[in-house]
Design a protein that fits this description.
Helix content: 25-40%
Bound molecules: xanthosine-5'-monophosphate
Shape: globular
Structural class: alpha/beta
Number of strands: 21
Oligomer: single chain
Amino acid sequence: MAQVVPLPTPEASPEERPVLVVDLGGQYSQLIARRVREARVYSELVGHRLSASEVAARNPAALILSGGPASVYAEGAPDLDTEIFDLGIPTLGICYGMQLMARDLGGIVERTGASEFGKAVLRASHGELLEGLPDELIVWMSHRDSVVAAPTGADVTASSPSTPIAVFEDRSRRLYGVQFHPEVVHTPHGQEILKNFLYEVAGAPPTWTPAAVIEEQVARIRATVGTERVLCALSGGVDSAVAALLVHKAVGDQLTCVFVDHGLLRENEAEQVVETFGGHFHVALVHVQAQKRFLTRLAGVSDPEDKRKIVGEEFIRVFEEEARKLGDVRFLVQGTLYSDVIESGGGEDGVAALIKSHHNVGGLPADMRMELVEPLRLLFKDEVRRVGEELGLPERMVWRQPFPGPGLAIRIIGDVTEERLAVLRRADAILLEEIRRADLYRELWQSFAVLPAIRSVGVQGDERTYAYPVVIRAVTSEDAMTADWARLPYDVLEAISSRVINEIPGVNRVVYDVSSKPPATIEWE
Ligand code: XMP
């Protein structure tokens, strides 16, 4: 066996044995890791080039081999170090992962001509993975090749009409394979199958809870930070809020938060941040009132990219000034998420390369000589929210829809002025009130108002008006890469429209943006 090389992942807790999801290039690798975590078992995504000794060094509770686009016999198809199968680690292969196991463990994989894409019905006989489930199971398949002979020593425990070997189990070696995808919602009992594997086969207990995450991160932050001082930029968003609260829980008043109010926030947003952090959690908070500075620099600027650049640069300048005033601060908190870390892995190795530091995700000064504390580095967004709830962060902040860094500046087309900001802020507040009243806030990825730089004719009372329209934008999305316009009920649109027009002088028309992304973007600038 190769020499044992421990992976440079200081983040993984030694007490917490991870389930490693080996990414073989499938589109659902990340989803598998999330499903395992939903079963309250800690899991991490790793690249497939890990050697058996590297895997052993992580002491995983189990391995799950993902699907993949390739045929196991194709040239350059993602491979595994076959010694991994001799480590005695419970292993579940899914789709391509299953076929790889079959190929490497004495079975046979062939292109039978019986591809399956979509729903299939399994007939299950016996076995551990499908324990407690109906004999007939609907599953979701997506494969061209099939396993035609199971690995030596493995039993076939389920078949579908076109895939005679849909599940195999080698219970003595604890090696399992499923041709279908248990991780997708189209496999109705998928999560139970994963739980059978995790709890029963691998004996991995469901102990990974928000409370456990907090305890672990707090201990880790204390060990890293010691008695040094820590700085955190609060944006009002959930990531920086949860990161700050974790650090505060760990090192109390060694933490100072800086909240830069650039004057481009929504109604009451700054007050909420100050009240929550300063008032409620007693975090040392520097509230920088920089509204004038930003507005002065934005005066006469109408190009969207210029606006973004100005807000970004000015933010860094203000933040640096405040940091300098605080004197000797060694650490900087960043709300980097696991999805940022995975994405920064990139390259042909996918996540294999992810285990490197991911600096300045938040766009903070590159030359600031501070060490990073990233307490959310191993969490997905929904996990950050659950940790936030557990820490007592108000519901309004935990479930806040994403809001762009340049704020309202990129939702006002053309010049950003005090007057136009006031109009947009009020329209946005009315819109959000009505969306909340209709209980739609959490269903929507984002819902907001935009102020275009045009005017149109209207009539109010007996008077002809020539005033601004307000655009309503509401979208559903999974990740902001694509988005669909939300089918808001007409009565909600009507409530927003009549309130905006009646309550805001200078607005005489409300329009609804019915464009999806692509080809439109979510924001207007
Ligand atoms: P678009 O408009 O490109 O937006 O469809 C995708 C997502 O990104 C957010 N967004 C930003 N967030 N700084 C940010 O922090 C920015 O400059 C920025 N621009 C867009 C947007 O709100 C949406 O969620």
